[in-house]
């Protein structure tokens, strides 16, 4: 904000000197000095000089008028200025030039024509153009910034190639939040074969949204949305992708950030902030060629990789060890001369089309015949799936980077040997026969059960009613509008009562918002943890059922495992695997026990929680937001490995859902993100904020809420932030941990923790980025101010004396959002 305050002061100063430009155009007789600005006619965009983040360098850029920190284009991104004495002007030849204090050219545009009356104009689309004022054709530009994108794609901006001039328009990330120079990531159109959109890291493909099939890129399970529509143009002169807004009153931008993640944001007038609308690379299947050749990736399956029908793993041992990079090979070699045919597959994303050929006018039948005649052709598909489909795309070489979605897909015809086709047909026929057999057997079984049930109805009536009561209690629960049946073992109340010594206080492990938790031992000797719903609990039967629905479907080493439930009489209980070391808060907030957690164990706990959250957010069959992540909900097994617990407040999202909102704010103060605590809006970034708090608590051994310091009144996040900006983050480390550690590792975890607790949700990384940050040594972006940070003067002695350092961490419910 300091930078933009300076910008305002300079603007005011130069206006007094009549050197500031306030209209939307400048001619050859005018210029913009550092401090002056150019505003689009509609008032949406502004051009001027700025310094990004903590940088002292000066750049010429374009930003939104209502969000001055959101820079969408930079002219001299690779040639920063060192002072405030620069000038941007238009020459008589129609060239924009940026001159430094010695009149040296730092940056310039280009043109192939000499205009009579050149002017530069900032359009309300955010496009800076140079044109001839005497030219009546409004779109006949001499030069435009839309031809040279930076990290942001705006509506109607083209990403792609001009096949006549060779101009390549592509997005490229900034090096960091403080340096707009071209980074290592780019989004561009790969023109090889059937052109496709790719995200590159240097010269290698990182992710591949895929080729265009008439409705969208095949790598996206796209549906209609109220914000924008996609468009793709492919002809002899150009190939490009662009999007257009459906409502011109909406502001939307697509940004490639320095970490290589593409994110789309929409401006919300109500909150006066950018809200995330969609994010690229949301799961492992987005990684290019993740499953290798002739394999498909499905994030809803376990394992996620599977060979296509008629193919086998190339390296079975590595495949069984979840190393799928070698992919698959044919079970039967191709014969080519009248010895091959095609097997139809249903896939979501079509394979990499860089080694393909296409024809817009062919029918699918002609495509098959053409492919069959060429022994190098391995597969074919329809080019345009609209209507009954049209056009032809053929693959030559291995099929790579194919994935499946839970819904939808396109037919891909893969070349197979005739003998292999016979086996596949036989298998399909056998499966149909099995299905018919299952249906017949099931029918007979049902009829038999009905007969047996009628015969034994009277003497089993009471027992059956009791069982149905228990089943019905665990069915059709309202999980925010969705209803599901659950398959989970039901424990008898007598068994649980005996296992816990009638819920003896000596067996009590602790108590949370749900109720008390008891240790129990089953008759076979297995230890269990029993969570018992308290009569005065703020959480009720719906939360219990919600937890069963979600956690029963999850399997991960860093999630606590549920063994069953007990719903009988007035008792509502969940039975879990027993964690002998209880919860994390029992260690890190206890001066004696915290010494048992050396740095190796603390780092292991942080990484385990991160992997568990990544699984919940991206890799599980349900996309789950925990909403109550905190130290007391992290349980520790006998080896001090962390397991996330308590899913009573969790919510599941659809595959393309980004965030949601509630009027019933539930969670724990100290861990709630600002947008959730204030507006009731939650997303995966809400969990990221809670995770960041947890990281800083583990490193420091201090609670965020109730933290006291003699020099200020900030919470732990504020204290960590002050140490960071004062270049003293090492002082945050827990002094009670005496073992040696690699200082750079601990500092990196503090850095990541601060990135996770930034005030704005869009600034926070997602969990896949967090895990990557922990495992790599790449340069991290600089964190911004954390949530709930208010820079206040040093507390006086009286206020320090009367302040409190105690706060409970019981999950809180607020019925109406503030």
Structure description:
It contains 15 helices and 47 strands. It is an alpha+beta fold and about 800 residues long. The chain has 6 domains: about 1-150, Bulb-type lectin domain (Agglutinin, subunit A); about 155-280, no CATH class; about 285-425, no CATH class; about 430-460; about 465-580, Phosphorylase Kinase, domain 1, CATH 3.30.200; about 580-815, Transferase(Phosphotransferase), domain 1 (Orthogonal Bundle), CATH 1.10.510. The chain has a 5-stranded antiparallel beta sheet with strand order 29-34-31-32-30. The chain has a 5-stranded antiparallel beta sheet with strand order 35-36-37-39-38, with helices on both faces. Strands 1-10-11-12 form a 4-stranded antiparallel beta sheet, with no helix packed on it. The two termini are about 25 Å apart. Residues about 1-20, about 475-485, about 795-810 and about 815-818 have low confidence and may be disordered.
């Amino acid at each position: 904000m300091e930078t933009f305050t300076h910008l305002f002061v300079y603007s005011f100063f130069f206006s007094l000197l009549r050197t500031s430009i306030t209209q939307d155009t400048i001619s050859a007789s005018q210029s913009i000095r550092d401090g002056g600005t150019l505003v689009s006619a509609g008032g949406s965009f502004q051009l001027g000089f700025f310094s990004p983040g903590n940088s002292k360098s000066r750049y010429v850029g374009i930003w939104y008028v209502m969000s001055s920190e959101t820079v969408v284009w930079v002219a001299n991104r690779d040639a920063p200025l060192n002072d405030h004495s620069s000038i941007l002007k238009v020459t008589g030849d129609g060239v924009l030039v940026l001159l430094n204090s010695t009149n040296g050219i730092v940056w310039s545009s280009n043109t192939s024509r000499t205009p009579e009356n050149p002017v530069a104009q900032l359009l309300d689309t955010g496009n800076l153009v140079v044109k001839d004022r005497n030219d009546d054709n409004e779109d006949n530009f001499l030069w435009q910034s839309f031809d040279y994108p930076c990290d942001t794609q705006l509506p109607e901006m083209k990403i792609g190639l001009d096949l006549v001039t060779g101009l390549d328009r592509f997005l490229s990330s900034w090096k960091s939040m403080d340096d707009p120079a071209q980074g290592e990531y780019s989004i561009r159109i790969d023109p090889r074969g059937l052109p496709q959109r790719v995200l590159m890291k240097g010269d290698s493909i990182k992710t591949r949204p895929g080729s265009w099939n008439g409705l969208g890129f095949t790598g996206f399970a796209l549906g209609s949305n109220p914000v924008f529509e996609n468009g793709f143009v492919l002809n002899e002169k150009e190939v490009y992708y662009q999007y257009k807004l459906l409502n011109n009153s909406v502001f939307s931008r697509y940004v490639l950030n320095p970490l290589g993640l593409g994110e789309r944001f929409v401006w919300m007038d109500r909150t006066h902030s950018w809200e995330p609308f969609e994010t690229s690379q949301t799961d492992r299947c987005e990684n290019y060629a993740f499953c290798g050749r002739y394999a498909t990736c499905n994030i809803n399956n376990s394992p996620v990789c599977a060979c296509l029908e008629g193919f086998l793993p190339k390296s079975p041992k590595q495949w069984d060890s979840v190393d799928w990079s070698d992919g698959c090979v044919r079970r039967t070699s191709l014969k080519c001369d009248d010895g091959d045919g095609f097997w139809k597959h249903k896939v979501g994303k079509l394979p990499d089309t860089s080694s393909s050929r296409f024809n817009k006018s062919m029918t699918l039948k002609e495509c098959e015949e053409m492919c069959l005649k060429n022994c190098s052709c391995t597969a074919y598909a329809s080019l345009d799936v609209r209507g009954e489909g049209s056009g032809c795309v053929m693959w030559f070489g291995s099929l790579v980077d194919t994935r499946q979605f839970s819904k939808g897909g396109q037919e891909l015809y893969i070349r197979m040997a005739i003998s292999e086709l016979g086996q596949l047909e036989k298998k399909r026929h056998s499966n149909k026969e099995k299905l018919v057999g299952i249906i017949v057997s099931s029918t007979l079984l049902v009829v038999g059960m009905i007969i047996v049930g009628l015969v034994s109805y009277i003497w089993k009536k009471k027992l059956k009613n009791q069982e149905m009561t228990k089943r019905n209690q665990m069915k059709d629960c309202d999980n925010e509008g969705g209803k599901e049946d659950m398959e989970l073992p039901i424990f008898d109340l007598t068994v649980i009562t005996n296992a816990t010594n009638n819920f003896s206080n000596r067996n009590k492990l602790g108590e949370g918002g749900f109720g008390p938790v008891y240790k129990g031992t089953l008759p076979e000797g297995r230890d269990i943890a029993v969570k018992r719903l308290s009569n005065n609990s703020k959480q009720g039967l719906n939360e219990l059922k919600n937890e069963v629905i979600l956690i029963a479907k999850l399997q991960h080493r860093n999630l606590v495992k549920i063994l069953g439930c007990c719903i009988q009489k007035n008792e509502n209980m969940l039975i879990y695997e027993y964690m002998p070391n209880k919860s994390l808060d029992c260690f890190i907030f206890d001066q004696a026990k915290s010494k048992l957690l050396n740095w190796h164990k603390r780092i292991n706990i942080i990484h385990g929680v991160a992997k568990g959250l990544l699984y919940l957010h991206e890799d599980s069959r349900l996309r789950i937001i925990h909403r109550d992540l905190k130290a007391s909900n992290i349980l520790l097994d006998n080896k001090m490995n962390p397991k996330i617990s308590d899913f009573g407040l969790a919510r599941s999202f659809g595959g393309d859902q980004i965030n949601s909102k509630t009027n019933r704010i539930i969670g724990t103060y100290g861990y709630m993100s600002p947008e959730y605590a204030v507006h009731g809006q939650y997303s995966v970034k809400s969990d990221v904020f809670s995770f960041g708090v947890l990281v800083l608590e583990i490193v420091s051994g201090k609670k965020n809420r109730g933290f006291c310091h003699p020099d200020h009144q900030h919470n732990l996040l504020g204290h960590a932030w002050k140490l960071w900006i004062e270049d003293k983050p090492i002082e945050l480390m827990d002094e009670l941990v005496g073992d040696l550690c690699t200082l750079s590792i601990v500092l990196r975890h503090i850095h990541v923790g601060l990135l996770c607790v930034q005030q704005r949700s869009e600034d926070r990384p997602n969990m896949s980025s967090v895990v990557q940050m922990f495992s790599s040594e790449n340069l991290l972006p600089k964190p911004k101010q954390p949530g709930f940070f208010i820079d206040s003067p040093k507390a006086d002695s009286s206020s320090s004396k009367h302040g409190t350092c105690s706060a409970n961490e019981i999950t809180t419910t607020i019925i109406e959002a503030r």
